[in-house]
């Protein structure tokens, strides 16, 4: 089954404790992206990647890191989480090179930073 | 000003009603336009792309007005199952940076 998976689905942590949210897709997509969703603000893009070893900042990259060492994986790293990073996080992937390419989303990771 | 703005909602309509959602975008260089649907904090899913000439998919019609930088979604004969949040999505030139509107919540009641 074609899908985007994220782990963990739910995480409660404390300020300053480094964490990684994994994202993996099995559709051989070049493009992957991370978003956070907050009430009233919609989804905001954190980072995106056009291919292996190619990443770029979205609108809200502060406090986050990403890496793209393999085509299928795009982990999101919070080196020192803070309470304002409490949010619902979505990973997405798509093909590139087409104007109307659909983004496929993972199920989301609900993160709470205390 | 937000790059993509939508009606704040929520919209409460009876079954069978026609409902229209509006969206405006600020970047005139925007290249691609979409409507996504999101159910109750689940992942967004593509509802339809929005083409320059307008397009229809069953009960759903999407239109784009580049001159006014405006996108619309019309749902005819609303069903209970249409209850969801509708997200307007714009991609910039190059197609990599993606901007989502805050979404408009729709409640269809029996």
Tell me what you see in this structure:
The complex is a heterodimer of chains A (114) and B (110). With 114 residues, chain A is mainly beta. Chain A has strands at 4-7, 10-13, 19-25, 31-38, 42-51, 54-57, 65-66, 76-78, 87-94, 104-105, 109-113. In chain A, strands 2, 4, 5, 6, 9, 10 and 11 form a seven-stranded mixed β-sheet that branches. Chain A has a four-stranded antiparallel β-sheet with strand order 1-3-8-7, with no helix packed on it. The model of chain A has no long low-confidence stretch (mean pLDDT 95). Chain B is an all-beta fold. In chain B, strand 7 (60-65) and strand 8 form a beta hairpin. The model of chain B has no long low-confidence stretch (mean pLDDT 93). At the A-B interface, strand 4 and strand 5 of A face strand 5 and strand 10 of B.
Give the SSE map.
The complex is a heterodimer of chains A (114) and B (110).
Chain A: E1 4-7, E2 10-13, E3 19-25, E4 31-38, E5 42-51, E6 54-57, E7 65-66, E8 76-78, E9 87-94, E10 104-105, E11 109-113
Parallel strand pairs in A: 2-11
Antiparallel strand pairs in A: 1-3, 3-8, 4-5, 4-9, 5-6, 7-8, 9-10, 9-11
Chain B: E1 4-6, E2 11-14, E3 19-25, E4 32-38, E5 45-49, E6 55-57, E7 60-65, E8 70-75, E9 84-91, E10 98-100, E11 104-109
Parallel strand pairs in B: 2-11
Antiparallel strand pairs in B: 1-3, 3-8, 4-5, 4-9, 6-7, 7-8, 9-10, 9-11
User: What percent of residues of chain A adopt helix (DSSP H or I)?
Assistant: under 10%
Strand content of chain A: over 45%
Biggest interface goes to: A-B, 27 and 21 residues
Question: pLDDT below 50 for ≥5 consecutive residues: which ranges of chain B?
Answer: none
Largest sheet data of chain B: 6 strands, mixed
Structural class of chain B: mainly beta
- Give the number of DSSP strands of chain B: 11
Described by strand count, sense and barrel closure, the largest sheet of chain A is: 7 strands, mixed
Number of helices of chain A: 0
N-to-C series of helices and strands of chain A: EEEEEEEEEEE
Poorly predicted runs of chain A: none
Helical amount among residues of chain B, as a percent range?
Answer: under 10%
Proportion of residues in β-strands of chain B: over 45%
- Using only C-alpha atoms, the radius of gyration of chain A works out to 13 Å
The separation of the N and C termini of chain B measures 37 Å
SSE sequence of chain B, one letter per element:
EEEEEEEEEEE
The assembly state of the depicted protein chains is heterodimer
Q: What is the number of helical segments of chain B per DSSP (H or I, 4+ residues)?
A: 0
Describe the global form of chain B: globular
